[in-house]
Amino acid sequence: xxxxxxxxxxxxxxxxxRLAEPFRREIxxxxxxxxxxxxxxxxxxQETYLRAWRSFSSFEAGGSDERGAFRAWLYRIAxxxxxxxxxxxxxxxxxxxxxxxxxxxxxxxxxxxxxxPWLEPxxxxxxxxxxxxxxxxEARYTARESVQLAFVAAIQQxxxxxxxxxxxxxxxxxxxxEAATLLGGSTASINSALQRARETLSHRxxxxxxxxxxxxxxxxxxxxxxxxxxxEGHDVDGFxxxxxxxxxxVMPPWLQWFIGRExxxxxxxxAWKTCAGLHLVxxxxxxxxxxxxxxxxxxxxxxxxxxxxxxTLENDSISAMTLFLDSNLFHDFGLPQFLPEVANSGLRxxxxxS
Length: 354
Prior knowledge:
Elements: H1 8-20, H2 24-35, H3 38-54, H4 66-87, H5 149-155, H6 160-171, H7 176-183, H8 187-204, H9 218-232, H10 236-241, E1 243-250, E2 257-259, H11 261-272, E3 278-285, E4 288-297, E5 302-314, E6 317-324, E7 338-339, H12 350-353
Parallel strand pairs: 1-6
Antiparallel strand pairs: 1-2, 3-4, 4-5, 5-6, 5-7
Helix pairs in contact: 2-3, 2-4, 3-4, 6-7, 6-8, 7-8
């Protein structure tokens, strides 16, 4: 009995999946860098792949490197989808609190600013398994630099077209002529956009680039353990001892933010007095060490999702804390909304997850 042959449509679907699926995670990261939102990036990836599938019959490899040509084609579709999304936004930028005003005294006033489009963290579990994570020869930033929270926050302040030019040329390593083909306009216009984007970033980074975050050293692993123990034990002195003298703490969606060990310590000493208990689960975000914080509820007798802490390490201390007070993020980090019980400290998982 003869075996039925697959239809042309099935051939096309199989070819599309073979070419497209290996790039899904890096396209998502590209959309995240452009938009500053993990959840918007998810939507734009879906839109990118739908557009790509609908126009797949028009794709032409044009050479022996079919995979490379398809990857560039996907980036063209994704970048244009991001630019369209930004054009349709009321606000084209996402923020962290330190970008909106000066640091204040150790107290919160009013309520959280829920109408501000806040920057979101990017779970490191989404950074695994890239088909080709290496940037091209024109890239100015390494993969680890370009995913750091401070860098993503900085590029959100660029106009969309400058942002796209910087992403394509300085992060992905495309030539200006390639970026001009994608974005429209001349190579000279792309070079001009790049120059303006680089000048804007130079105002935030004195050496034109963010400090490179490497994997924590053994000494920094011990530092993270001290941070965990201080929070779980409400040990203000232990907490302050791991902070850099001019450390910063921001807590979106609150507009208020703090600078300096003494100010930060004073704020959390007061905040911890209203807290029944805290449990920290080590994780990582934006290529940086992070913790998921659970707060104990006397009413429920369980540990409820509270916040995600993304930390910036500088030598033997913590120079910046970004506390995302949004329990909805826990799902994106592969974590539950509550823990029925906690038998042991999260310290035992620290070296494995950092």
